[in-house]
Amino acid sequence: MPMKELKTDTENTLTIERLLHARHYSLTLNKQQCTGCEICKTICPREALTIKKIPKKDGEKARHPILDIDQQKCSYCGMCEPICPFNALQVKVNEEHVVPVLKTESFPQLIREITVDTSKCPIECVECEKACPLNLIKVSTLTKDGKPVKDTKSTKRKKNLKVEVDVKKDLCPCCRLCEIKCPEGAIHVRKIFHGVLKIDLPKCPEECRDCLDVCPIPGALYLEASDNKVYPNEAYCVFCGVCRLVCPVEGALTLERRSIHHTPIKSGAWNKTLEKLTSVHEYSKEAKLKGWMKAQAAAEKRLVPKAEGGA
Q: Do 189 and 177 meet the contact criterion of CB atoms below 8 Å apart?
């Protein structure tokens, strides 16, 4: 039995804690990074996470929903942390950052595949930094020995300078805005979530912009001037689902995740999660692939002794 259960809600964070005789568990939500999307809530095995929608006032823009955590239901398994595309949640055990489902290898990590070829970066170009909607990119100009250069315009020997691009990869949802906006093709980003986002325009209320108001990625949804309607752009979409949550008309906006870029894993917990997050068809495809790989590994095991004996 827990000695104490705590919940601390501040402007920037929400923290729940469970104090036992030998363990101290905590789960912290960074409200600045959280978009109020549905992913963690969808996969929580204890239904400890809930989404609270904020009523829209006349004349104001829609606001993204707020995530709440039930300190009595939470088991501190940590599933919510690695699945969050914005890395807004963190689990600690005895004040140490530990994710139990990762420690036991029963859950995968999302793969944030971002590569930058700085040899292609022109001096003074900061297009990728300006494009990042979450301010996760910092472009710096350095001398050959690594010293920062503040005023590149007054520097005579620009050939001796080099560019450094620092990306906070652990917070990046991989929207690809930096890649597409980069004029030199220096950045490559592989999306974490792939899927389909559709808007049924006849169902959309006139002048409704709720989905556009809450979308965390500029350009994933855009307003078309010719008909004053909101359209999706899957090239930028991270498929978090916050647009679907705030849409006032059921069926007007549909989102379907078809694949998730993650580390290899064999786990019943992940199978259940995948089934909740993706379409039935895509879940079936991954399950079949895992079954085939398992059968292949078993066959190779049987063949290895024979091959060694023949040698």
A: no
Alpha-carbon gap, residue 294 to 266, rounded angstroms = 9
Separation between Cα atoms, residue 38 and residue 246, nearest integer Å:
11
φ/ψ of 45, rounded to 5, equals -70, -15
Q: What is the dihedral of CA 189, 192, 195, 200, to 10 degrees?
A: -80
Could you tell me the sign of the dihedral formed by the alpha carbons of 149, 152, 158, 164, in that order? positive
- Look up the CATH architecture of domain 4-103: 2-Layer Sandwich (3.30)
170: Cα separation from own chain's centroid: 9
Joined together, the tokens standing for residue 87 give: 């890395």
The whole-angstrom separation of Cα 150 and Cα 153 is: 9
**Nearest residue to 119 via CA among 148, 66, 159, 80:** 159
Domain 113-190 CATH (choose: 3.30.70.20, 2.60.40.2660, 3.30.70.260, 3.40.50.2000): 3.30.70.20
DSSP line for 46-74: T--EEEEPPPPPTTS-----EEEE-TTT-
Residue 114 contacts residue 189 (beta carbons within 8 Å) = yes
Write the pLDDT tens digit of every residue in 172-228.
999 999 999 999 999 999 999 999 999 999 999 989 999 999 999 999 999 999 999
Domain ranges of the chain: 4-103, 113-190, 193-260, 279-310
What is the C-alpha separation between 225 and 4, in angstroms, rounded? 56
Whether CATH 3.30.70.20 fits 193-260: yes
Residue with tokens 């980069």: 182
pLDDT tens-place string over residues 96-150: 999 999 999 999 999 999 999 999 999 889 999 999 999 999 999 988 888 888 7
Task: List CB contacts of 107: < 8 A, sequence separation 6 or more.
Answer: 78, 79, 82, 99, 101, 265, 267, 269, 270, 273
What's the pLDDT score for residue 146? Answer: 80
